[in-house]
Amino acid sequence: MGFADHVREIERVGKGSNTGRDAIVVESWRRCLETYQLDPAQAREAVIVSQTRLREHRQQAEDLVRIARSGLERLYRQVAQQNYVLLLSDRQGVTVEFLGDPSFNNNLRKAGLYLGSEWSEPRAGTCAVGACIATGEALTIHQTDHFDITHTPLSCTAAPIYDTQGSLAAVLDISLLSSPILKTSQNMARHLVSSTVRRIELANLMANSRHDLVLRFAGAPEFLDVDPEAAISVDGAGRITGMTHGGARLLAASRGLDWRMPELLIGQPVTDFFLAGLDELSSLTRASLPQDRRIAVRDGSLLFAHAIEPQQRTASVPLARSSGGPLAISRLGGSVPAIDNLRRKVTKLAPSRLPILLQGETGTGKEHLARIVHEVSGLSGRFVAVNCAAIPEQLIESELFGYAPGAFTGALAKGRKGLIEEADGGTLFLDEIGDMPYAGQSRLLRVLAEGEVLPVGGSAPRKVEFRVVSASHRSLADMVAAGTFREDLYYRLNAAVLSLPPLAERDDLPWLLDRLLEKHAKEGLPLRISTAARLMILSYRWPGNVRELDNAIAFAAALCDEGVIETADLPDHVTRLSGNAAEDTNDADGKDAADLRAVLAACKGNVSEAARRLGIDRTTMHRRMRRLGIDRPH
Ligand SMILES: Nc1ncnc2c1ncn2[C@@H]1O[C@H](COP(=O)(O)OP(=O)(O)OP(=O)(O)O)[C@@H](O)[C@H]1O
Fold it and tell me: What is the number of alpha carbons within 13 Å of residue 479 lying toward its C-beta?
């Protein structure tokens, strides 16, 4: 159908003609013409909201997205091969979650199948998300059902997600960019989307009714425990506190009410809807077989029910203390002012429960410091280190939060504890926190705020108590300014900030060298180093920090004869770039020292000028002078 025909059909429908379109499409076209005054002859580009607005929408929807995530991923895996993309829109029609093949990114963006795209009817005309918001029903808007000619290649199927109070919270949509197939082929898609929504609503109800009795219902006993059709929650006084959409329909049908009026359902006594007392309802637990858990609804129908008792909160784990502080703190570094200062801070901060943010270039010893903090803290639980940059983005949430049994394909049948729970009673070290995906940041924030962790695909949060130490070699403050790191999470993590200097700025390099020689000594044989090799190490800049030094000593330890490291055993780049501090002599006044003296003399003792000529900063210059035993000229 061409553009002109499409416009003509909409106009005819607007005037009351029947062109054979589904009623749901006809009603939407009329809303577009009459209520929103849209012109079918004027094609509109897809609307994508600004980053700032998108962030606001995503923050508001984050609770739902968190609960829906495993369901969304599962649905996407089922449909991705048929080239569907998946959109979760909030109740304003703004896409807050998107799963699609990144290889056709540009076309999807143009078509509005993208994060931040706005699919409300007033903005986009008849479309699946918009019509779903307007009607509250699952539906398909296929190709020329769309009002706007821009969207007519698309085939979209959407279902509404209701919150536990019966209000529309979001819309789940799967869309095909172009589709040669007939509209009826989307019936299957609608079924898939609707069953995903049912599971999401159930998970949401479970998460929100931890202290209430939950009743799940199914028409057949076989599905009762695995895929119930409806669920409601009931408080200790027997009043309805929440429901899934299926639950709302069931309650409304029981009394001949309209499910669109949830205020007639929420807060009402459950016994108004069922021919059973509260005690009888609470006894429908797994203790009896599903087929024996039959219950009569007031409209005369019979259902099977499953009662889930309110969950008790787990008692908080006392964080016991142990000692180990003095020894641990001495491993921080040598006795030089900067490190002594750091040591003082660590001693004071470690026993508190304040979250600590460690800053420092890569390899400066952030994890080493985090372990020291843990040992000095006296926490009895484990130290669990997580490198957020090393875990693939798709796995980060299940690694951190764990997952419930059967949460996704490939998951262990009995589920798995996440790293956060492993750290219960101890310290969770989040390395490279700046690489944590945005969605994971939101979930982490929630764990820190509530002290509870909800496994992926799970509905029962578990209490956890741990100390968080995080680290990043990137500036989190800059990331917050750029909108890639959550500001609220940033403020939660950086209650105390400790900075580790680059190795080139550490005056305790000789101390570190000695510790690493001890570390790499082979059993029973002390590892030593010749003066020349030592000087070479002391005058090298160590851009890779303590890690590079550690690796260099490990390398030399493997090469050296009779436990003595000579210059020839050091890695080539160290010998090449160390400025020949000392040829193989025992003379501490090597060529490097002579060079420095010469430059200083040429600059009439002006250290800043000498540093400038050598292309190093003044602090480094002073440090080199100290190392090489050169006094400051007067
Ligand atoms: N004070 C120290 N004493 C002895 N060894 C140290 C010290 N600091 C760091 N190291 C060693 O240096 C190496 C690198 O340290 P660590 O892994 O803690 O650095 P990092 O800053 O966390 O690195 P990245 O930013 O790459 O995660 C480790 O092998 C560690 O044992």
Answer: 21
Give the CA dihedral 559, 564, 566, 568, nearest 10 degrees: -10
Number of domains into which the chain is organized:
4
CB 219 within 8 A of CB 303: yes
Ligand 1 pocket test, pick from 518, 550, 553, 555 with the greatest ligand atom count within 8 Å of Cβ, gives: 550
Nearest by Cα to 582 from 516, 517, 543, 537: 537
For residues 280 and 363, state if they share a domain. no
Q: Is residue 101 part of a domain?
A: yes
* Any domain includes 314: no
The number of the ligand 1 atom at minimal distance from the alpha carbon of 549 is 12
For residues 158 and 135, give the distance between their C-alpha atoms in angstroms, rounded to a whole number: 11
Distance, CA 365 to ligand 1 centroid (Å)?
A: 3
Query: Closest Cα to residue 428, out of 451, 411, 407?
Result: 451
The rounded Å distance from CA 174 to ligand 1 centre is: 47
- What local confidence, expressed as pLDDT, does residue 413 receive? 58
Phi, psi of 377 (to 5 degrees): -65, -30
Q: Give the per-residue pLDDT at 380.
A: 87
Strand partners of residue 215: 232, 307
CB of 89 within 8 A of CB of 170? yes
Q: Atom 9 of ligand 1 has which residue's CA nearest to it? A: 365
Query: Which domain-ending residue is among 277, 308, 339?
Result: 308
Could you list the residue range(s) of the whole structural domain that residue 622 is in? Answer: 505-627
Report the atom number in ligand 1 closest to the C-alpha of 473.
25
465 with 339, same domain: the answer is yes
- Lookup result for tokens 């875990």: 391
HSE (side-chain half, CA atoms, 13 Å) at 513: 20
CB-based contact 305:250 (threshold 8 Å): no
- Tell whether ligand 1 has an atom less than 6 A from the beta carbon of residue 431: yes
Q: Does residue 371 line the site of ligand 1, with CB under 6 A?
A: no
Question: Could you state, in chain order, the average pLDDT of each consecutive group of 10 residues for the chain (634 residues)?
Answer: 89 93 95 93 85 82 80 86 90 90 70 86 94 95 93 93 92 86 82 94 86 91 87 90 96 94 91 89 85 90 90 38 61 90 92 92 93 91 87 78 70 73 93 88 88 83 92 89 92 92 92 92 83 85 91 90 90 72 40 70 78 71 77 63
What is the CATH number for 25?
A: 3.30.450.40
In a domain, 304, yes or no: yes
- So what's the ipTM on this one? 0.97
Last residue within a domain, chosen from 501, 526, 550: 501
Compute the distance between CA of residue 196 and CA of residue 75 in angstroms, rounded to an integer.
7
Phi then psi dihedrals of residue 214, to 5 deg: -110, 130
Contact 618, 611 (CB under 8 A): yes
CATH number at residue 350: 3.40.50.300
Q: Tell the residue nearest (CA) to atom 8 of ligand 1.
A: 365
Looking at residue 545, what is its pLDDT?
A: 93
Expressed in angstroms and rounded, the spacing between residue 84 Cα and the centre of ligand 1 is: 46
Task: Note whether residue 315 is domain-resident.
Answer: no
473 C-beta closer than 6 A to ligand 1: yes
